[in-house]
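User: I'm designing a mutation panel for threonine ammonia-lyase and want to avoid disrupting the core. Could you give me a predicted structure to guide residue selection? Please restate the sequence first so the numbering is unambiguous.

Assistant: Good idea. Sequence first, for numbering, then the predicted structure tokens:
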Amino acid sequence: MSADDVREAANLLDGVITRTPVVESRALSQLAGARVVLKCENLQRAGSFKVRGAYTRLSRLTSEERERGVVAASAGNHAQGVALAAGMLGIDALVFMPVDAPLPKLSATRGYGAEVRQVGSSVDEALSAARVEAARSGRILIHPFDHADIVAGQGTIALEILEQVPDVGTILVPLGGGGLVAGIAAVLADAAPHVRVVGVQAAQAAAYPGSLDAGRPTAVGLSPTMADGIAIGTPGQVPFGIVAERGVEVRTVSEDLLSRGLLLVLERGKLMVEPAGAAGVAGLLAAAPGEFAGPIVPVLSGGNIDPLVLLRVVQHGLVAAGRYLQLRVRVQDRPGALAALVDTIAAAGANIVQVEHSRTDVSLSVSEVLVNLQVETKSAEHRTSVVERLRQDGFAVDVT
């Protein structure tokens, strides 16, 4: 695949997709030691980059194939992209999604006009069901990442980045099955080979490192991850070939870094992203200052997040950033004991947001009470100093 293939896809997408903006981030620039510019595909139609590849693939179907309809599988973003593209092109669409797919993604996919069936606990299981349906019904399978048209459509992001940030030095790309990073790498190999491309996977769903070591797509067991959009057990043959041939670097990031990245983009950039969409930012947070040549462009690949998941991820991010502390403290069950505990926390400069007493814990003596506290702190260092201050004042503290 070449940059010319991607330019042809860009012509197909002209007037269909949104040319998403880039936003400079002072906060990330200070952390990275280089200019950081966010590519905001979270503001794309249907909330992610996926509509680029979906529309490219569907628009190239023959009339006979369109009549047969299409079938797809997705955790949510590809589902919405296929549903939106199918609706624009007048094609009947059936989408398989995992049983625990986020409700907003389910309702949005149905809202775009697709039929949704829920099956399995992962994208890979949903994809197996979609393949069976394609064989049974004759529908055309629209793979989420393993097709040249899909890769070409996703690669159009790189063309926009080169126009918007012409001196770009590094692009950080969320990586699941590989369609997005492969499309970007294909463009840059021809148009700007000096630009460094780094794919970033969730450590708990990272199929590419082992596959690259093996020299072929290799299945990996998935652990639960908040980044459901990039939780893919096996790389696609088409994107894997491009990633391997172009020597794309792949890194992994922890759940803590994913949540911190999401929180930073939300709080400092005023941009809503899903955990998978924050993977590139998480990769930047994991790197040493100056490690990546600037300008650095993390791709915010999607912004479709369940509000309930957002609440949990934000809290996780606050804990990871040292700005939220949960404590279990034993105190004597006598007047003034709780006041002394509160005074110590106040003197340490922390803010109590929730207090809960328990006198029924089996580990307590008759004269003790257990106090569960949720406390706001200012940094990891401040969090440590609050705990130390409590222990210095004689409190038995467990950090939960």
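For picking mutation sites, this is relevant: DSSP finds 16 helices and 14 strands in the chain. The chain has three domains: 3-48+150-318, 50-142, 322-399.
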